[in-house]
Write a structure and sequence with these properties.
Among the domains are: 39 residues, no CATH class; 271 residues, no CATH class. Helix content is 34%, strand content 13%. Strands 3-4-8 form a three-stranded antiparallel sheet. Strands 6-5-7 form a three-stranded antiparallel sheet. A three-stranded antiparallel sheet has the order 11-13-12, sandwiched between helices. Helix 8 packs across helix 9. It starts with a helix and ends in a 17-residue tail after the last strand.
Length: 642
C-alpha cells in the first residue's frame, strides 16, 4: 500500500492545492513575486501580533534553529585538539603509550598483489608500486651449504655470519671501488664516501703476478684456490672456504661460463675477447624478439666487432681495469656471489612495469628504486636470505642506494633541456663569471641534497623566522634501537644493527606520529608552523631536530612543566625514571673517566657535570639553565657504580 492510497480526502486536497500554488509560482514574473513576498510578510506580521504566549513559545526554538542554519558563511571556530596542552599537565598515572594513535603493532598488513608485509600506517604500494613492479622471486632452493651457514644455529654458522663480508671478499669477482668507513662499537654500520664503482680485470693475471678476484677461479688446483683465498683476509676458516668454493663452482652460472670460455680460448691470442652482454638480446635486434636468452651469458667475440657501451669486455691477460656500468644485469651478481650464488640477473634496462589492467609488461621501465624496494621487502611465506646477511646486507644496501642516486643523476644529466636548465639564474651567473667552461649540469631543486634544494629549504626556514620570530621549542627525537616494533621483526640471532631497513622504517613512522602529536594533537598548544631535519649519528641511528612555533608563547612559569633536566621520582613515576636513567644520563666523564668520548683537553665538551640550581634561569649567553635541584631542595638522585 502506498502513502497516497492511505491518505484522507483532506490530505489529498491539501497536496493538490500545494501543487497548484507551486505551478502558479513558476509562471510568475519578477514583479509578481516581489508583490507576493511583501504580502506574505504583512500577513505573517499580523498573525504574530495576534498570537498568544503559548504559540509564541512553541515557535521561537524552531525559529532560532532555522536562523542558525541559515547563517553563512559560518563563523570560524577552533575545535579542541585531542591532546591539547597534555605537556603542560603531565600525569604520571596516565598510560600515554596506550593511546590508539601511538600503537603500531606488528608488521602484519599484507599487500594483495605481492604478499609484502608492512605496518598499518605505512603507505600502500611501497613494495610493488601498486602492482606495477613484478619481479622474479629470489630462488628458495638454497644449497645445503648456504642453508647451513645462514641459519646461525652452530659455531661455523655464527662465525660465518659474523665475518660474512670477509668471506664475500674472498669470492667476489669485481673490486669495490670507494672510500669505505667501518664504524665499530655497539651499533656497527657501513659507510662510503665519494663515488661507488665496481672494477673488473682480465681473465688471467700477468705472468709473475698473484691472481686476484675473478682470476682466482682459474687456478688449476682447488686446494690451492682455497689456500689463496684464505690468505686474502684474516679471520676466515679453510673448511668454510672449501665448502663455499665447491658450491660456487657448481651453482654459479658466471663461474661455469667463464671456465668454459677459458677452455675454448687459445693461448697467446689478442684477437678474441670474452664478453658479458648488458642485455639478454643480441645487439641491434628488437628486444621483444628475444624474451628468453638465445645467447650464452658469457661469449667469445673477435676484436673489431661492435660492442655496446655497457657490455663487459675482458681480455685474456691485461693490466687494464674496466668499470662496470651500474645498469649491467651482472653488476650485483659479480660483486656479491654469496647473495646471488646462482648469478641471478638484477636491475637492468630490460625490466618493464606491468600494466595492472592487462597483467602484461608495458612500455615504462622499472626504476632502480622500485626494483630494490621490492627486492628488500619482507614477504609472507617467503625466505628472503638477503635479510640474513648481516654486515654484507648493510654493504649491499648502501651500494644499491648509490646505484639509485647514480641513475637519478644520469637522468638529470641527459635531460637538461627537458628540465629547462638554461633558464636557471645560477647557470647564467656561472656562464657569465667562469673563465673556463666545461659541460655544466644543473641539479633541479627537486634533487634531495642538491645546492638548489638546500638553498630553497634555507630560504623557507628564514621566512618562518622573519615572519613569526624565534621558534618556541627545539626538540631532538632520537631512534631507540630497543623499540618493540624493531625487536619484534628481527630474525633469530639478529641485533637491530643487522636490519637497518627495519630501523629506518620504524623511525619514519614514529616521527610521523610525534609530529602529529605535536601539531594535530597540540600537546604544547596550537602550532603556527614547524620544520625538522633528519640526521644520522655516528653509530648509525637516525635522529630528528624539530623547531616548533606556537600560537601562544610558553610563559616562564610553564617552562618546568615542559622541560625537565632532573631525575624523576622513582616511586611516583617508575617508568619515566627507568627511561631517563637508562638513556639520558651523561657520563661518567671528567676525572672519573678521562677517556670518555666527550673529553677534550681534560674538560667535558658538553660542560658536565652541571651545577645544581633550584629554579630555572636564563643564562648570560642566552641559553637557559634548567632546574636541577639537589636532594635537600626536593630533587632525586640515582646511585651509579663504576
Amino acid at each position: 500500500m502506498t502513502a497516497r492510497s492511505a491518505e484522507t480526502a483532506e490530505q489529498t486536497q491539501l497536496c493538490l492545492q500545494r501543487n497548484r500554488i507551486a505551478a502558479a509560482r513558476t509562471a510568475e514574473t519578477t514583479e509578481q513575486t516581489q508583490v507576493h513576498r511583501e504580502q506574505a510578510g504583512i500577513d505573517a506580521a499580523a498573525a504574530r501580533s495576534a498570537e498568544t504566549a503559548e504559540p509564541t513559545q512553541q515557535r521561537l526554538p524552531r525559529q532560532d534553529t532555522l536562523t542558525t542554519a541559515a547563517a553563512w558563511p559560518p563563523q570560524p571556530t577552533r575545535r579542541r585538539a585531542w591532546a591539547e596542552n597534555f605537556a603542560l599537565d603531565y600525569n604520571p598515572v596516565t598510560q600515554y603509550r596506550a593511546h590508539q594513535k601511538f600503537f603500531m603493532g606488528r608488521m602484519s598488513k599484507k599487500c594483495s598483489r605481492c604478499n609484502a608485509l608492512r605496518w598499518k600506517d605505512e603507505r600502500p604500494g611501497i613494495c610493488c608500486n601498486n602492482g606495477k613492479v613484478h619481479l622474479r622471486p629470489l630462488s628458495e632452493d638454497i644449497p645445503p651449504v648456504l642453508t647451513h651457514l645462514f641459519q646461525g644455529a652452530n659455531p661455523d654458522s655464527e662465525h660465518f655470519l659474523g665475518n660474512i663480508r670477509k668471506y664475500n671478499s674472498c669470492f667476489q669477482m669485481t673490486s669495490f671501488g670507494d672510500k669505505t668507513i667501518d664504524e665499530p662499537g655497539f651499533n656497527p654500520n657501513f659507510k662510503v664516501q665519494g663515488q661507488v664503482y665496481h672494477l673488473i680485470g682480465s681473465l688471467l693475471p700477468i705472468p709473475g703476478e698473484q691472481p686476484q678476484f675473478l682470476q682466482i677461479y682459474f687456478m688449476g688446483d682447488q686446494q690451492a684456490q682455497a689456500e689463496h683465498r684464505r690468505g686474502i683476509v684474516e679471520g676466515v676458516r679453510l673448511n668454510v672456504i672449501r665448502e663455499l668454493q665447491d658450491d660456487l663452482h657448481e651453482q654459479n652460472k658466471y663461474v661455469r661460463d667463464f671456465k668454459t670460455a677459458r677452455e675454448r680460448l687459445p693461448e697467446n691470442t689478442d684477437d678474441l675477447r670474452i664478453v658479458i652482454h648488458a642485455d639478454k638480446h643480441p645487439v641491434g635486434e628488437h628486444e621483444r624478439r628475444f624474451n628468453a636468452p638465445v645467447i650464452d651469458e658469457v661469449a667469445i667475440q673477435i676484436v673489431g666487432q661492435q660492442f655496446e657501451r655497457r657490455d663487459i669486455v675482458l681480455q685474456l691477460r691485461s693490466n687494464e681495469l674496466q668499470r662496470i656500468s651500474e645498469t649491467h644485469r651482472a653488476y650485483d651478481a659479480l660483486q656479491y656471489p654469496l647473495i646471488f650464488w646462482r648469478g641471478d640477473d638484477c636491475y637492468n634496462f630490460q625490466l618493464r612495469q606491468t600494466d595492472i589492467r592487462t597483467g602484461k609488461p608495458g612500455t615504462r621501465k622499472v626504476s632502480a628504486m622500485d626494483f630494490y624496494a621490492s627486492r628488500l621487502m619482507v614477504r609472507d611465506g617467503s625466505f628472503n636470505y638477503i635479510h640474513r646477511c648481516r654486515m654484507l646486507f648493510l654493504q649491499f644496501a648502501v651500494d644499491m642506494y648509490a646505484k639509485i642516486e647514480t641513475e637519478r643523476l644520469s637522468f638529470i644529466r641527459h635531460h637538461q633541456t627537458r628540465l629547462r636548465a638554461d633558464d636557471y639564474i645560477h647557470l647564467r651567473d656561472a656562464v657569465a663569471n667562469a673563465n673556463q667552461r666545461g659541460n655544466v649540469v644543473i641539479l633541479p631543486s627537486s634533487f634531495t641534497g642538491g645546492p638548489r634544494y638546500m638553498h630553497e629549504r634555507t630560504q623557507d626556514a628564514m621566512t618562518y623566522v622573519r615572519h613569526y620570530g624565534r621558534p618556541d621549542l627545539f626538540i631532538t627525537f632520537t631512534c631507540n634501537s630497543k623499540w618493540d616494533e624493531i625487536s619484534n621483526e628481527l630474525l633469530p640471532g639478529q641485533q637491530s644493527y643487522d636490519r637497518h631497513d627495519v630501523v629506518a622504517r620504524v623511525f619514519h613512522l614514529k616521527l610521523k606520529q610525534l609530529m602529529d602529536y605535536i601539531t594535530t594533537g597540540a600537546i604544547f598548544g596550537a602550532v603556527r608552523c614547524h620544520m625538522y631535519t633528519i640526521e644520522w649519528q655516528k653509530c648509525g641511528l637516525p635522529h630528528a631536530h624539530i623547531l616548533i612555533w606556537l600560537c601562544d608563547r610558553i610563559r616562564p612559569e610553564q617552562v618546568d612543566c615542559v622541560i625537565s633536566a632532573e631525575i624523576p621520582n622513582r616511586v611516583e613515576d617508575p617508568e619515566l625514571f627507568e627511561i631517563v636513567t637508562k638513556h639520558m644520563v651523561h657520563g661518567p666523564c671528567g676525572q672519573l673517566n678521562p677517556g670518555s668520548p666527550c673529553m677534550k683537553d681534560g674538560t667535558c665538551t658538553k660542560k658536565y657535570p652541571k651545577a645544581l640550581i633550584k629554579d630555572t634561569v636564563t643564562g648570560i649567553d642566552g641559553y637557559p639553565l634548567y632546574r636541577r635541584r639537589s636532594a635537600d631542595d626536593g630533587g632525586f638522585t640515582k646511585q651509579h657504580t663504576l
